[in-house]
Amino acid sequence: MTRRTFQGSFTQQEPIPEDAIEAANAVLRSGRLHRYNLADDEPGETAMLEQEFARWQGSSYCLATASGGQAMQIALRAAGTGAGDRVLTNAFTLAPVPGAIAAVGATPFLVEIDENLCLDLKDLERAARDSGAGTLLVSHMRGHLCDMERLMAIAADHGICVIEDCAHTMGASWNGTRSGSFGLAGCFSTQTYKHMNSGEGGLLTSNDPDFMARATILSGSYMLHDRHGAGPDQSHFQLPRYHMPNMSARMDALRAAILRPQLKRLDNNIARWNARYEAVASHLAERPALALPHRPPAEAFVGSSIQFRWPGCGDENCRALLAACGARGVELKWFGGTEPTGFTSSHHSWRYVEEQALPCSDAIMAELFDMRLPLTFSVEDCHLIATIITDCAKELSA
Predict the structure, then answer these.
(1) Please, are residues 113 and 361 in contact by the beta-carbon 8 Å criterion?
(2) What is the reported pTM?
(3) Which class is 18-260 in CATH?
């Protein structure tokens, strides 16, 4: 029997659209790459991106930043978080999230996750009560949204400010409300592996004008904050312009020019990702030994990656599944390894974070696999990939 292998690349993204390349070339020919280096009455690519993304997201304001990590750092600072403060966040997330908390001098206080890879809301209530934290930086890790109405109710009960890390949920929603629209601010990434690709980049959204004025000054606007496409009225800048430090975290015109045409295609691309997700998920669901996270009806997600657990498999079988799938061209990531690998790490590797006992999260991550679903894969590719995974798991279970 022939054992089929997959020949595609898990890191190859679709090419930048031709109209985005043309827009980028126009910026390069102008020589005006800095967002404030504009001719008279010229709005500029970055300001127009802010306007368009705010409109798409349904937010009053949007600020374009140099990265998603900078969007989180600026959001925390603009919300008043600083040295010595505790900030709640997920035990299961990627390193830039606790990194952003540490960067503003605060201390991450990690909250358990549940088997659906969401923030465990029972543990959040405990942490909100016991930690003394005034802020929650909730990470919608790998595109999984918890019950956002319940989360916001818990936060309100404990006087906690909510900032959303939406790096993996650009376009996702809970009961019809977009991720990033529940808390004080939503932080988005346009790094290559996210839903829009400018290499690096970030977007920060909010409906609070005073918060956004502080964030804009922090991003490095100098006294040019009137050149922002989706910023608050100038009256909101009168006080913060004297008190907020300049963090030089602006997005340049070149990246904005690349992103604007991609935003027009985003809704269509979300449908394409979800078709690929469903192709893989339908196969994995047929293998009883493998467990997929539950997707509740209230959640509209973006399936740009997929996760599954192999309950009770043990470390040896996890490593064997990585190797067997890898030999057939399927690149899985495993969150149970003792050492960080590539983009994958766990709280045990974040030694700038105070060590905490997180038995539930550790047990879940010990058997958790993760896989990208780039749009360079066809739906047929995804059926083959899923077949390889289920074949390898079956062989190892025999």
Answers:
(1) yes
(2) 0.96
(3) alpha beta
